[in-house]
Amino acid sequence: MLKIASPGRVNLIGEHTDYSLGYVMPMAINLYTFLEGEKASLVEIYSENLKSKKSFYLQNLKRENDWSDYIKGIFWILLKHNHNLQGLRGKIYGNLPIGSGLSSSASLELAVLEFLNLKYKLKLSKMEEAILAKEAENEFVGVPCGVMDQMAVTLGKRGYAIFIDTENLYYEYVPFPKLYILIFDTGVRRELANSEYAKRRKIVEKTLNELGMKSSKYAELKNLNKLQELQRRFLGYIIRENQRVVEARDALKNENLQEFGNIITEAHWDLAKNYGVSSPELDFFVKNALKYGALGARLTGAGFGGSAFAIFTEEPSKIGDEILKVYKRIFPHNARYFVVSSSDGVRECVH
Ligand code: GLA
247-265 burial string, b = 16+ CB within 10 Å, else e? Predict the structure, then answer.
């Protein structure tokens, strides 16, 4: 029996910058998808959280628009790249909330990929795993995501955030100080928002194309003048966000925690006002976390619901309880919070 632990991630800063090949700085967190299983000739898998069982053959991988697509996608991409493998029989479970903007999809994909990598001796590096999982999500599942989530899940390292240049995949571990991270899951699922995500991606790609640039890293404020209103707003946000990722990395390196907090809060309001991906629920959390003394707070992931996080110097469970209580009086959603810390990336679990 092989057991894999695959973390989720919080993106500290660099939101909606990976699909224009800019900078990001995520961190793997100690909420996990676990996969436990054995080799088999077909795929037979049970999700304890969803109470659902799926089985399929490798010869017949069809998208069904449900959770099994992420698993099929991994088999599909490995077969496409001519890897020699068979199936698996097992179960998945864990404490990483599904569809809450904490990369439950990438976490599931990479649990499966790491399982197959070890069981079938595919000899894939962490970087190859991240790229394959992203391709599976883009080409099989049909979500036009960037590479941030997959890299955070594979390359995660306890005690560190990961600064990534998504154009050349250069990455650097940045020590993350002993701060508490309060994650607030608004209880608003973000599936509905996929089309809004794709819309932004399209506009940004078109804009960079018109400017003759491969990556948003090369765009400057002076390039904005000739653009149409929406293009100017979106690219303006991305230019500032790329800059903030570099500044946030340096603030962490210099242990300037209040400055790091200020940068992430500024990023939230820029995302909300100019990129249009926040929501009243996310804004509510950010405002309240700051009121209770957070160094900084912002939405994380694609937005439109999902999760936000705040950083504190003291253990923030009481603050989480307080915010949740008031939130539930205003919003009718099944919200919850987690106090998390950094984690290693996807790996075999030995105990
Ligand atoms: C989702 C995508 C990522 C990234 C974020 C926004 O999490 O999967 O690739 O684009 O949204 O920063």
Answer: bbbebbeeeebebbbbbbb
Query: Among 319, 279, 270, 271, which Cα is nearest to 295's?
Result: 319
In the chain the domains, ranked by start, together with CATH numbers, are 2-175 (3.30.230.10), 180-340 (3.30.70.890)
* Structural contact between residues 25 and 163, judged by C-beta atoms closer than 8 angstroms: yes
Nearest alpha carbon, ligand 1 atom 8: 145
* 92-140 tens-digit pLDDT: 999 999 999 999 999 999 999 999 999 999 999 999 999 999 999 999 9
**302 close to ligand 1 (CB < 6 Angstrom):** yes
Query: At 302, phi and psi to the nearest 5?
Result: -70, -25
Task: Write out the catalytic residue numbers.
Answer: 149
Ligand 1 pocket, mutate which of 9, 27, 134, 148 (most atoms under 8 A from CB): 148
Q: Which amino acid is at 273?
A: K
Confidence (pTM)? 0.97
